[in-house]
Write a structure and sequence with these properties.
It is globular, with a radius of gyration of 16 Å. It folds into two domains: 5-118, Arc Repressor Mutant, subunit A (Orthogonal Bundle); 120-164. A hairpin with a 2-residue loop joins strand 2 (51-56) and strand 3. The chain is 52% helix and 10% strand. With 164 residues, the chain is mainly alpha-helical. The chain has a three-stranded mixed β-sheet with strand order 1-3-2.
Length: 164
Amino acid sequence: MTYSNAHIHRQAARLLASAGVAHEPVDLRHVVSALNLELVAHASAPFSSEAALEPQGDGHAIVLGGGGSERRRRFTIAHEIGHFVLHPELARPERGGQVTEAGRVEEREADAFAAELLMPEHLVRQAAREHGADVDRLADRFDVSRSAMRTRLQRLDILERHGS
């Protein structure tokens, strides 16, 4: 099933509300807890992904690979939360392999969900009105990478044309 941007926006907003998150930067510990997920560091190879959503006991875990910046890790966790919310049937041990067109759509949806979760539109618009749409400043404020913030501002059509 393919989800609209409006559906993804609503799902992320509901999750933030249920986790009690009302300001930036989004505390992913509250979101993970609200979903009853675990965060687990993966110690052994091979593990071809930065993270994967996997069954664990009676629930699910986001299994994290090593490396990467903290901001990249936050986006990766939010991406896996997106899979949990949008594609729960995909929770299985990470296997790698060929990605299908349907898989590419699911990945784009999880990325869109991660952006909505970490950079909620209303908070980004408010911060941009109050402090300007400066990519660096907003990336710091939302604790995301500059590239993620730049993409978010472009998609919301509020990126300062003369700056970043």
